[in-house]
């Protein structure tokens, strides 16, 4: 399954969750949600992982440059 299908599963799980009376809250199976989230993490494309790493690296570099400029 791809990411979109997993996200759709998560959405259905939330939409079909039992409502808590007199509240906008819902009861959702923690195990099911955690399993879907774990599967989503595994399916994140490498490009996204690399982009996150590059963004963190850029932020650190900018932080060091600002300190040096001060």
Polypeptide structure, described:
The chain has 70 residues and is mainly alpha-helical. The chain has three helices and two strands, in the order H-E-E-H-H. The chain has a two-stranded antiparallel ribbon with strand order 1-2. Helix 1 runs antiparallel to helix 2.
Extended strand count: 2
- Which percent band covers the strand fraction? 5-15%
Give me the number of helical elements.
Answer: 3
Q: How is the main sheet built?
A: 2 strands, antiparallel
| Uncertain ranges | none
Detail the topology: elements first, then pairings.
Layout: H1 3-15, E1 18-19, E2 26-27, H2 30-42, H3 46-69
Antiparallel strand pairs: 1-2
Short description:
The chain is mainly alpha-helical and 70 residues long. It has helices at 3-15, 30-42, 46-69; strands at residues 18-19, 26-27.
Give the key terms.
2 strands, two-stranded antiparallel ribbon, elongated, 6% strand, mainly alpha, 70 residues
């Amino acid at each position: 399954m791809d990411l979109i299908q997993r996200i759709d599963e998560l959405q259905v799980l939330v939409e079909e969750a039992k409502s808590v009376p007199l509240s906008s809250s819902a009861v959702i199976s923690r195990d099911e949600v955690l399993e879907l989230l774990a599967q989503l993490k595994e399916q994140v494309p490498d490009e996204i992982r690399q982009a996150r790493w590059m963004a963190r690296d850029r932020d650190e570099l900018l932080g060091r440059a600002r300190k040096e400029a001060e």
